[in-house]
From TrEMBL:
The name this protein goes by in its record: Strictosidine synthase conserved region domain-containing protein
InterPro entries reported in the protein's UniProt record: 6-blade_b-propeller_TolB-like (IPR011042), Strictosidine_synth_cons-reg (IPR018119)
Lineage of origin: Bacteria, Pseudomonadati, Pseudomonadota, Alphaproteobacteria, Hyphomicrobiales
Stretches assigned to the Strictosidine synthase conserved region domain: 134-205
Pfam families (UniProt xref): Str_synth
Amino acid sequence: MIAPIRNFIDRIRGNGRHAITTPPMDGVLQPNTLIEDAPLLAPISRPDNLVRRGEEMLFSSGNQLMRINGTTPEPVEAFPHAVNALAASTGNALAIALMDGSVIVRGGKHDGFSLDQRQAASLTCITALCFSGEDRLHICQGSHRNPLSEWKRDLMERNAAGSVWTLDLSQKSLTKIASDLAFPYGILADDKDSLVVSESWQSRLISIDPSGNVRPVLEDLPGYPARLAPQSSGRGAWLSVFAPRSQLIEFVLREDKFRADMMRSIPSDLWMAPSLTAPHSFLEPLQGGGLKQLGVMKPWAPTRSFGLIISLDENFAPVASWHSRADGTRHGITSVADRGEELVAGSLGGDALVSLRHSGGLPA
């Protein structure tokens, strides 16, 4: 009873969830240029879903499954639909989720497994996968209202239409374990038989126990979190943050009539909304002296896009970060993979794979 009353009062006063303030980028999140200055591994169109399977580094590019050996990407397999998510098990199984809801397993104990059409119809927007052992695959569905390609519309509609599912590969059964989530976009199994999920539109990480109970783990992030990846040390995790929050976007999210008019009359690339790519058009909503000085982009300019990777300790507290700022181009980091002392990051908005050196989750 108290929660609805508190929510009503917060809405009137602009407090709590209804505030338009955003957390400062300070402490371990203080901006730097480590992503922008990192060596380029390979230019590649829209790299996403980086995973490490044994000694292999795999990722997706559109409908292609790719492998990178050294600095050379090479195709492994092409699919009839875009690849939405990948996950690798300790037994070298690779799960592949496609845009149409299909989930396919290559290698390992369940090689050749695929969901039937009836089950796949429940999964209209798969955003992330992770294995828990060889027999269980956990699945994030970002929204049952919009496909992954329409993530921006899902945010602007203020949906909480996401869910987390468990697929038992032995029994071929699919079970929903949490629903009404605000675009779950990353998932990691912890050592307590729970799942840690990045809930993008709430800018937080949550833990979901086997009974489906949800509790916050890390709240009030300065951006929209994407995928989680384990650190090679076995302690801690990597969190990709694909776009920044801002007071202007928070304000727009609270103006229903303006937002509806904007979505109806303006192309989505020009909405006052987060973006995966650095500014490239004079028609974009943030322009002029607020962004540039003497024709040069200010690193501290307000921006709808950036690149951000956060190193988390075993308690999912931030300990270090890597950035590409407003004046950079390696924006829209949606996934990373750790191979020892090298972290490979995919800039979905910058069409680049970059190599970041680290030592125990800290910049090297």
